[in-house]
């Protein structure tokens, strides 16, 4: 069967001496693997279609549920500027790897396609990749059924105001008097909690330019790391690389 799908390349791997296999996050058919014959040849007309973050139309033959074989393609946006920037490429790779690991083949992928497209577009337009990444992680948690409760204390069931604690184990916020409900809870300032609440209600397509102070960004990263580790538990190579960039001061 011949398919013609809009998609984004989230992974590419060599296959044999001259071929590549790409994984697409598509708008209508979830995640699909496609064999691109001759993609590693110098004069290949399809090599540019196999680059990570490439957004376009991919036309391929596919029988059953196996790999497709690329016939042709049209690039809407190559996102080459993202690949050429170490920090942007690292954030893009992390977002793509999250989707690759979380999205099953043939899952309905429209939501993830739109979020990833907005994420890559936002980075290309100069929006803060760290802020967008925290929002992307929040969407990942919510779509997986683990979105945290950020308004009501998980212990007292009362509204939370001011500085508080985030309990990944309980899946929500704790007011300071009830911090003992989870000895592993993570502290969160009123400012960071307010941003987390915005993230819970917003998707990436509506995010504007947000100016977040470095200490608040560090808080957000600590909280989201704890939530992601508790509920998603993915040991991703791209995440480890991002952490190394942060450690040595590149991810600023």
TrEMBL record:
It comes from the Bacteria. Belongs to the RecO family. Keywords: DNA damage, DNA recombination, DNA repair. This is DNA repair protein RecO. The keyword Cell membrane does not apply. Involved in DNA repair and RecF pathway recombination. InterPro entries: ARFGAP/RecO, DNA_rep/recomb_RecO_N, NA-bd_OB-fold, RecO, RecO_C. Residues 1-78 form the DNA replication/recombination mediator RecO N-terminal domain. Gene3D superfamilies: Nucleic acid-binding proteins (2.40.50.140), Recombination protein O, C-terminal domain (1.20.1440.120). It comes from Saccharibacillus kuerlensis. Pfam families: RecO_C, RecO_N.
């Amino acid at each position: 069967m011949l398919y013609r799908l809009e998609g984004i390349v989230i992974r590419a791997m060599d296959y044999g001496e001259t071929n590549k296999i790409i994984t697409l996050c598509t708008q209508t058919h979830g995640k699909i693997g496609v064999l691109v014959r001759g993609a590693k040849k110098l004069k290949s007309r399809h090599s540019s279609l196999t680059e990570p973050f490439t957004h376009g139309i991919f036309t391929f033959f596919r029988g059953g549920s196996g790999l497709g074989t690329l016939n042709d393609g049209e690039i809407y946006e190559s996102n080459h500027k993202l690949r050429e920037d170490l920090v942007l490429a690292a954030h893009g790779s992390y977002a793509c790897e999250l989707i690759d690991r979380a999205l099953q083949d043939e899952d309905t992928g429209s939501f993830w396609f739109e979020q990833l497209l907005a994420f890559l577009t936002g980075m290309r337009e100069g929006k803060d990749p760290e802020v967008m990444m925290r929002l992307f992680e929040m969407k990942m948690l919510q779509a997986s059924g683990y979105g945290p409760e950020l308004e009501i204390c998980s212990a007292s069931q009362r509204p939370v105001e001011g500085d508080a604690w985030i309990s990944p184990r309980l899946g929500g916020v704790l007011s300071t008097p009830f911090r003992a409900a989870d000895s592993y809870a993570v502290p969160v300032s009123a400012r960071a909690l307010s941003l987390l609440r915005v993230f819970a209600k917003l998707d990436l397509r509506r995010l504007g330019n947000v100016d977040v102070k470095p200490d608040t960004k560090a808080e957000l990263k600590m909280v989201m790391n704890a939530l992601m580790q508790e509920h998603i538990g993915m040991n991703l190579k791209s995440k480890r690389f991002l952490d190394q960039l942060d450690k040595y001061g590149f991810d600023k």
